[in-house]
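Long-time lurker, first post. I've been practising inverse folding by hand and with some scripts of my own, and I keep getting stuck on stretches where the structure tokens seem ambiguous. Below is the full token string for one chain I'm working on. Before anyone asks, I'm not after the true native sequence, just a reasonable design that respects the backbone. If someone could post their per-position residues I'd love to compare against what I wrote down in my notebook.
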């Protein structure tokens, strides 16, 4: 196994761990090791967040808004680049949202096109997300809109 193979496997593990944590609304402390402790940039449909504290605010909002979440990875391309890797992916995201006082929740389904930049953590033990960009969302037929 070459170093690139190992790095790609570590990146794939990061992607899997990230979506698994989002699906179960893991405690925020379980997501902190998946993101960079310095210079974290995240660009969401709702607007950007910066740093771990900014990410925490976003995470607390969305875990109180969406439920029954399921993320299914559809495409993944990893391009190692020195001490970082560029990641392009498409993930199918399905969830429900309830807008009080509506009688029923609404189903959301879409393919999210994303670009990440990942690198080794400060101690070199794992891959972490340095930059996370939601490039676009393609609604599935019958899905409610996000906004």
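-- Answer (accepted) --
I ran through it position by position. Result:
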């Amino acid at each position: 196994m070459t170093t690139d193979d190992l790095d790609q496997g570590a990146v794939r593990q990061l992607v899997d761990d990230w979506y698994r944590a989002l699906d179960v609304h893991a405690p925020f402390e379980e997501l902190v090791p998946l993101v960079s402790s310095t210079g974290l940039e995240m660009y969401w449909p709702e607007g950007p967040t910066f740093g771990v504290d900014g990410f925490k605010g976003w995470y607390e909002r969305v875990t109180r808004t969406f439920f029954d979440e399921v993320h299914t990875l559809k495409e993944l391309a990893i391009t190692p680049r020195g001490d970082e890797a560029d990641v392009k992916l498409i993930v199918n995201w399905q969830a429900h949202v309830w807008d009080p006082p509506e009688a029923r929740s609404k189903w959301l389904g879409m393919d999210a096109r994303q670009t990440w930049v990942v690198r080794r953590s400060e101690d070199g033990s794992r891959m972490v997300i340095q930059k996370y960009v939601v490039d676009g969302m393609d609604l599935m037929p019958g899905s409610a809109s996000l906004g």
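A couple of notes from the structure itself: The beta strands are 41-44, 47-50, 66-81, 84-97, 106-120, 127-139. The helical segments are 3-23, 28-31, 51-65. Happy to go over any region you disagree with.
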